[in-house]
Amino acid sequence: MRMIVLKKSIDELKTSLKENNQDALVVQCDVSNEEAIVKAFETIKTEKGAISGLAHCIAFANKEFLTGDYLEVDRESFLQAHEISSYSFTAVARTLKHLDMLTEDASLLTLTYLGGERVVENYNIMGVAKASLDATVKYMAMDLGKSGVRVNAISAGPIRTLSARGVSSFTKSLAIVEEKAPLKRSTDPDEVGDTALFLFSPLSRGITGEMIHVDNGYHIIGF
């Protein structure tokens, strides 16, 4: 059922892009398999050539360990969360480099969350994986900067998405943000999209290794 829902979302996205891209390319890629990653981007290279931007919006963790004590997470679930939510960004970027697919001014972007910086209730294993992703951005920025490629992250506030449904007490988190954030409201998806557009554009040409919070200022609150 989940796969059907995800495919529906992708189909809807493809349809919404028709005004700018009449035939948007959709390629399946299993980020836990190196051969699948290479095959997917070889297909993209053949069809589209080099790319100037990549948005890494992938995360997964065993829902069983998003509640309770973090200490109870088992090894397999820990490794799986890191492999898909963090390492996949490195694996994809490396593939793009080896296939010579990145333009000189390319911009790579990933999505993170405050749970990687602070303890967030019912985020547990995903918080640790996001911390790994945050560090990955910095080290990748250093490596790829030599080629003129920038690497950044957006730390968005809670948004009602398919993935968010897997986090217990998500509605409670929204209410807290709306109450305590300086701008007194939750994050609008368009605000995240606008920030991504900025990071992909030449306007951000001097920014790399950075994490930009798009959460109406909630991350500055200390209580």
TrEMBL record:
Pfam families linked: adh_short_C2
Top EC class, one word: oxidoreductase
GO-annotated molecular function: enoyl-[acyl-carrier-protein] reductase (NADH) activity
Assigned EC number: 1.3.1.9
Domain of life: Bacteria
Keywords: Fatty acid biosynthesis, Fatty acid metabolism, Lipid biosynthesis, Lipid metabolism, Oxidoreductase
Cell division listed as a keyword: no
SUPFAM superfamilies, per database record: NAD(P)-binding Rossmann-fold domains (SSF51735)
Listed pathway(s): Lipid metabolism
Similarity field: Belongs to the short-chain dehydrogenases/reductases (SDR) family. FabI subfamily.
Name of the featured protein: Enoyl-(Acyl carrier protein) reductase
Originating species: Listeria floridensis FSL S10-1187
